[in-house]
Amino acid sequence: MAKIRKDKIWRWRCQWSIVTIAAIALIIYNAAANVWLLRPPSCPVHTTPSPTEPSTCEPCIDTAPNTALDDDPVGRIDLRLGRWDGSRSYKMFDYAAVGDMYAELSSNRHVTLATQSSIERLHELLRIAAHWSGPISVAVFVAGDELRLLRAFATWLFRCQPEVYSRLAIHVAMPAERPGVYGFVPSWNKDCSSRPLPGERRADTVAWRARHPYPQNHLRNLARRNCHTPYVFLVDVDIVPSKGMSEALDNFLATVPRCSLCAYVVPTYELDKRVANFPANKSELLRLSKNKLAIPFHRKVFIYNQYASNFSRWEASGGNESTETHISHNVTNFELLYEPFYVAPDTVPPHDERFLGYGFTRNTQVTSLLLWDKCKKKKKILVMNNVCEFTNIINKKHTQKLNKKHIFTLHITNVLENKKCEEMKKIEICVFL
């Protein structure tokens, strides 16, 4: 009996010993597993190559650039953004499209050509770009479905005229009353054999544009404010600079002392429609002038527009002087309605955005510029030689009512004359030969 009891106790001890050993083993295993799982990760050792050690990575020159993001820059404008003008009548979008060379050219050149256009005249930008090799800042006015045409034109330039597109910065202005809409992009935007910007505007957009004035001064200021060179050459989109003018101005401005209060007037001529090509130099232009195929800008429409530049004196040299760009003469007979095209720092007065529509919008700015000088009792106006610009508008019909414009300009002048001299600055105006 005692032996049986002893065997039971032994078996019980053996069973509990096995259970205890298994439990201890399980505890040790869990502890080891926790230590292994919770250990900090080992940090890889980075060796810094010596300065003379060549890089083992080479640029990936085989990768084709992704043009999908570049050929439709206008399509990425967020129309909810932009900035308003002072009256909240127009919304502005800076740098809607920018060529890849615009910033570099702005750093290396002295002058940016600034211009403005509506969508139906924008194709004339190609004539300017063919003669001007420097940066170009262009402000475009669009209303309603015209935005889709600008979008297509920017894509067409990117694909078909990359050399022109690379030098451009395109800015957009649209009216609050009829903001731009993207709509359907026409197929010619990727067809280099097509003529860009055919007449595709909707009838209601054309009718709206006919009833509302064109905000020229808003656009001029928009184009000017986005120039980054020391000087700005502001022209209308139908004014074409003489070939090589960008380089000629660069050479001239690099040799003359820096003058932040100088403006250099560029003589402007109208060419007869029978003139097939722009004159290559001043001698050729004078030959056309002698044959009545070239006349000073707006001489038939409104003679005072360029009268103070004294074209007779400018032409008197006969084109026999130095081929280098230089100053021809001082403008001493300033007229109230003088509207020259000139090269100047962008510190000159802005264009008054209260005045809308066509005619005398530039005159108000030039008058402001000269009134600043008048208050300082000093005025010097010079004309430049061996650079000029042209437009093909002789024999065009002009429907402008000059009597109303004359009254309008007198009103503007009265406003400007009432300004205090303390608020004005001095400036010199020069005219190129």
UniProtKB/TrEMBL annotation:
Pathway entry: Protein modification; protein glycosylation
GO BP terms in the entry: protein O-linked glycosylation via mannose
Recorded topology in the membrane: Single-pass type II membrane protein
Domain of life: Eukaryota
Pfam families the record matches: Glyco_transf_49
Catalytic activity reported: 3-O-[beta-D-Xyl-(1->4)-Rib-ol-P-Rib-ol-P-3-beta-D-GalNAc-(1->3)-beta-D-GlcNAc-(1->4)-(O-6-P-alpha-D-Man)]-Thr-[protein] + UDP-alpha-D-glucuronate = 3-O-[beta-D-GlcA-(1->3)-beta-D-Xyl-(1->4)-Rib-ol-P-Rib-ol-P-3-beta-D-GalNAc-(1->3)-beta-D-GlcNAc-(1->4)-(O-6-P-alpha-D-Man)]-Thr-[protein] + UDP + H(+)
One cellular component (GO) term of this entry: Golgi membrane
Gene Ontology MF term list: glucuronosyltransferase activity; metal ion binding
Subcellular location: Golgi apparatus membrane
Stored InterPro entries: B4GAT1
Main location: Golgi
Keyword set, alphabetical order: Glycoprotein, Glycosyltransferase, Golgi apparatus, Manganese, Membrane, Metal-binding, Signal-anchor, Transferase, Transmembrane, Transmembrane helix
Cofactor needs: Mn(2+)
Keyword field contains Manganese: yes
Keyword set includes Lipoprotein: no
Entry similarity comment: Belongs to the glycosyltransferase 49 family.
Protein name, per record: Beta-1,4-glucuronyltransferase 1
Organism: Diatraea saccharalis (sugarcane borer)
